[in-house]
Amino acid sequence: MALEAWFMQENDDDQRLPHHKNPPEYVSLDQLANLGVLYWKLDPEKYENDPELNKIRQDRGYSYMDMLDLCPEKVDNYEQKLKNFYTEHIHGDEEIRYCLKGSGYFDVRDKDDRWIRILIKAGDLIVLPAGIYHRFTLDTSNYIKLMRLFVGEPVWTPFNRPQENHPARKEYIKSMTEIGVPLEAH
């Protein structure tokens, strides 16, 4: 099954719930690609020797990789960490995550500043462009195992909103206003 994404109903309910509008308003892979969000569906059972994953890593320069098990039993100060991940922010580099087990949500802002919720499950590899406002949370299962990929040494510095003058944000806005062909979605 392909990646699922939808416009969020904003409210104060538990952040781990789906937050569908009524009726739901789904977002296509092409719409995500127009925001610079890339997606591949891979086989998480063979991540250690997957030629397709290796090709993506080589083509995009993802030379560093580590793993993250995110659940209450394995993360100190779990609730605080989850709260930090859910604070709206940008990064100076792409955020690349490959879900190996479990599930969670990446929320990204569209061009009209509306939240789009992206459900990631085992086999989903997602790339968020540098400078896009986003946040992350688990769903009600409270478990996800992620492979984190980086170009060079890992850098995970969040810059909380507002960041309109951050170079990565300026470059992202510029890329969204230029006329061109959207990035290829997989």
UniProtKB/TrEMBL annotation:
Q: Which cofactor does it need?
A: Fe(2+); Ni(2+)
Q: Which GO terms describe its molecular function?
A: acireductone dioxygenase (Ni2+-requiring) activity; acireductone dioxygenase [iron(II)-requiring] activity; iron ion binding; nickel cation binding
Question: Among the record's GO biological process terms, what is one?
Answer: L-methionine salvage from methylthioadenosine
Protein name per the record: Acireductone dioxygenase
User: Where, by residue number, does Fe(2+) bind?
Assistant: 89, 91, 95, 134
Q: What does this protein do?
A: Catalyzes 2 different reactions between oxygen and the acireductone 1,2-dihydroxy-3-keto-5-methylthiopentene (DHK-MTPene) depending upon the metal bound in the active site. Fe-containing acireductone dioxygenase (Fe-ARD) produces formate and 2-keto-4-methylthiobutyrate (KMTB), the alpha-ketoacid precursor of methionine in the methionine recycle pathway. Ni-containing acireductone dioxygenase (Ni-ARD) produces methylthiopropionate, carbon monoxide and formate, and does not lie on the methionine recycle pathway.
UniProt-annotated location(s): Cell membrane; Cytoplasm; Nucleus
Per UniProt, where does Ni(2+) bind? Answer: 89, 91, 95, 134
Amino-acid biosynthesis in keyword set:
yes
Enzymatic reactions:
1,2-dihydroxy-5-(methylsulfanyl)pent-1-en-3-one + O2 = 4-methylsulfanyl-2-oxobutanoate + formate + 2 H(+); 1,2-dihydroxy-5-(methylsulfanyl)pent-1-en-3-one + O2 = 3-(methylsulfanyl)propanoate + CO + formate + 2 H(+)
SUPFAM superfamilies registered for this protein in UniProt: RmlC-like cupins
UniProt topology in membrane: Peripheral membrane protein
Q: Its annotated pathway? A: Amino-acid biosynthesis; L-methionine biosynthesis via salvage pathway; L-methionine from S-methyl-5-thio-alpha-D-ribose 1-phosphate: step 5/6
